[in-house]
User: What shape does this take?
Amino acid sequence: MKRLLYQGVSGEVDASESIKSAAAAVIRGAAPSHPEPDVEDPKLREECGVVAIHGHPDAARQAYLGLYALQHRGQESAGIASADGHHLANIKGMGLVSEIFTDDVLQKLPGHMAIGHTRYSTTGDSALLNAQPIRVESTKGLIAIAHNGNLVNLGNLRTRLERAGAYFQTTSDSEIIVQLIAHSRAGSLVDAIADSLSQVEGAFSIVMMTRDRIFAARDPRGFRPLSMGRIHNTDGPDTIVFASETCAFDLLRADYERDVLPGELVMVTDDGVTSRQYSTGVQQTSCIFEHVYFARPDSKIYGRWVQESRDQMGRQLARESHVPADVIVPVPDSGVTAAIGYAEQAGVPFRFGLIRNHYVGRTFIEPEQRVRDFGVKLKLNPVRNLLEGKRVILIDDSIIRGTTSRKIVRMVRGAGAKEVHLRISCPPTVSPCFYGVDTPSKRDLIAANKTVEEIREFIEADSLAYLSLDGMTKACGGDEGTGFCVACYTGNYPTQWVDVEDILPATAGV
Ligand code: SF4
Assistant: This one.
């Protein structure tokens, strides 16, 4: 049975009983509506999504809507903390946003401010303990934090803080930021936050909340996205919102205003918005994989539409490696936009030759005699009349271990395709990520261990080609001044050192 746990934490508000009954209701009605990590999943796992709301009478419900739009960034746990100027309440649970935050639960989160988080774990274990927002009572008052990314200098910071008397409630790296704030000698809270953020290295887009203020910040290299938006209110001050991706603003009816800049700390109070650069002069290295795969195509990331980047990746891929073909078929869903660009550039028809079953859960009754490639067949099915007798170009966004790509190639060939060519809309993934993306170790990344020709042979395709590094960077607007991290394609990491012992990448499926 699927595990659904609840944790209700409140400041001066005791919401525990009603949370328990709401949790019980959810547990009773729980259905495994999203797949657990499984060995058939070909993709790297998304990291986290964060949202913050200031100046809305029902801020928690707005945070819920924002998280709902960011659900693709993490499906393991979710949480919302709200504040009304005096009290700070926090509720988090395991599962999807809509499963955790029923109407009853949202009513326990009053106030005009809220922050929220949806998570797939990257450090710390996946227990409820590490779900966010994390709430810490500190010398600077009560602080709730929600963090997207991974810190890379954990080891020495944690030890130093523990020696200074810090008591860690979680094993999550995000709590280090709050403990640094609590132990800062800076006089004001905003100075303590700036002081804390300048001591940590790695990837962090964070939102924080005290009883009466919201903070939003990005790490100096801007690894992860974070945008600011505004809901224009005719009868009072505007509502200020922050979200990992701008697709959340659409559901909130907020206008995108700007990105939080790398190294910027923004503070929102009842008096308005103020900002400071707590770090300057560091080269921007935003995660390019957000454009390749993670972010939704209807989001604007680092000032550029993801749809536009993926379309350009497909076009560039066609320019670099097209072969004669009858049909272009995307591997759904993430290969779709690049495949449209590719088909237009190559002048070859685009067809949905593979159909994805969106309702595959974790539990299914397996056939008695295990069918070859059964897991992939559950998720994808070929449209035989579109593939039979055709020279097919499949477009996908990555090959991680290669086993799933091989199953898809076999499936298309089994449906009667005459030739199967695979095109990948990014370069070979040769190195793990330490900045908040769950990648297998180098040992399990096929491109770290085989040449392109050896991979082609392994996946049984007639031809295989990847997008060039230069082609990908240009397609994502790199020639317009955005600096990108491309470490998983090159092995050259932008931070000075990586505390690998503490941040061994989690074991991803496939
Ligand atoms: S290593 Fe890859 S996935 Fe990780 S931040 Fe850099 S580009 Fe993104």
Summary: Residues 12 and 158 are 29 Å apart (CA to CA). The chain has two domains: 47-282, 305-357+374-490.
